[in-house]
Amino acid sequence: MVASLAQLLDLMRHHGASRIYAKKLAPNDNSKNQVYLGGDFSALNIIPHGEIYTDDAGIAGAVRDRAKAPVRFSWIDGDGGHDAPNTGLILYPKYPEVRLSGFLLGSTGAPKEIMRVRDAGRVLILGITPEGEVLGYAAEAEHPVARELNARDWPTIGVFLELPLTLDRAESPRDRLLSELRRIYALQWIGSQKLARDGTKAPYAARNGGGYTLEAELGITPNGYAEPDFMGWEVKQYGVADFLAFRPKSPVTLMTPEPTGGIYRTGGIAEFLKQFGYPDQAGVPDRFNFGGRYDCKRGANHLTGLRMVLSGYDEASGKMTDLNGGMSLVDANDAVAASWTFKGLMAHWNRKHAQAAYVPSLFRTPPPEYSYGGQVLLCEQTDFLLFLKAFASGMVYYDPAIKVENAPSPAPQIKRRSQFRVAHADLTRLYERHEKVKL
Predict the structure, then answer these.
(1) Is the pLDDT of residue 307 over 80?
(2) How far is it, in rounded angstroms, from Cα 102 to Cα 86?
């Protein structure tokens, strides 16, 4: 028997939760009508899920503009965990909105008496584990957990309340993050390092150590699931020339998904480079590159002959018109050289999560060292539709760095990097809220 909110938070932590959220349930939030998670796709950044797929195969009159994504969900109580194997998210791009469904089907320990009714005052608490599992607990209005939850103000992310891991230290994840960044700022110069999986720090000599060094100071180790870096916050550093103007040296790389269609996939990357690559512009022999900026407002690239097109999205309404749409690099005859589907891109974008901190850094050598600035940019509540809006406007663009070296040899070396980028000044357009914080 869970007798208090503090006991429930302890139970969530015992089962592995590293982030905890709550939702106050409306009358329509039940097993029949599903649980409403917001009028956009931002909930996908909060709740870990599997591959997004269209669920209309063999169903007469099925809703074509609806997609699903499985969720590894369990109900927890004083007796332990109870698997809910049919839990999933349902995406409705037409509206748009996201709902949680299937959470009672096939689960012997599910709180059916709470989730089947329309009673006001009910609450749903969700714990998120680093492995991408979701833990659920539901309470009726008169339960001590619901009373305590409803009696206090909590930080919000979309439709969710953000709860601390323990009431003994009710400092919010945001405050914890800022406290750690303040400590790191006070350290001034830090030797370049990288944190191993066992938690030990090791010197790191390569030039791309700014992010690794910051992660090591925050105690962030690599993990199999794309969990946010620090208590639900993604932490990204960016190089600057000084700590006066905080002017970034380069654009922000948002994600790096490989193409899933076109000649890039059907013919292979070697064939793709053969058709659309060009000799190295610096004169490096036997090297062919594929680069340039590709966005929806530009014509064909003069070196590759390819241009970017977007299908299945209506720029005027800001909505997806076809979940099977996506973006493609096409040639003068509209043949697809490389493409990405919306469903595949959403899976990558959702790993960016709802909250991100952008931290400026300086670099010096020898030895390689980094210093992190006293002003950080906090961005909250991103959404894939915001990404599509920015991409359709040309603000977000494809900026590949693909090459083949020793091309004529029997064993050419191919390096690939498909990156979607945005100017740092436009970064806040991808979030509902943002704030510059001086440490």
Answers:
(1) yes
(2) 5
Domain identity same for 109 and 189: no
Please give the pLDDT value at position 61. Answer: 44
Residue 347 has pLDDT above 80, yes or no: yes
- Give the residue, 137 or 228, on which the prediction is more confident: 137
Say what the pLDDT of residue 58 is.
Answer: 42
CATH number of the domain at 85, please.
Answer: 2.40.330.30
> Which residue among 128, 163, 198 closes a domain?
163
Domain boundary among 163, 198, 220: 163
User: Are 91 and 196 in a shared domain?
Assistant: no
Those residues whose C-beta lies under 8 Å from the C-beta of residue 410, and which sit 6 or more positions away, are none
331 and 310 both lie in a single domain? yes
128, 196: one domain: no
Could you tell me what percent of the chain has a pLDDT over 90?
75
Calpha distance 85→369 (Å, rounded): 48
pTM (whole model) above 0.85? yes
At residue 288, does pLDDT exceed 60? yes
Considering the domain architecture, whether residues 43 and 134 belong to the same structural domain is answered as yes
The whole domain housing 281 covers 171-439
Q: How far is CA 101 from CA 88, 116, 233, 312, in A?
A: 6, 12, 26, 26
Q: Please tell me the number of Cα atoms within 13 Å of 191 on its side-chain side.
A: 8
- Tell me the CATH number at 411: 3.30.70.3570
Q: Is residue 270 within 8 Å of 414, Cβ to Cβ?
A: yes
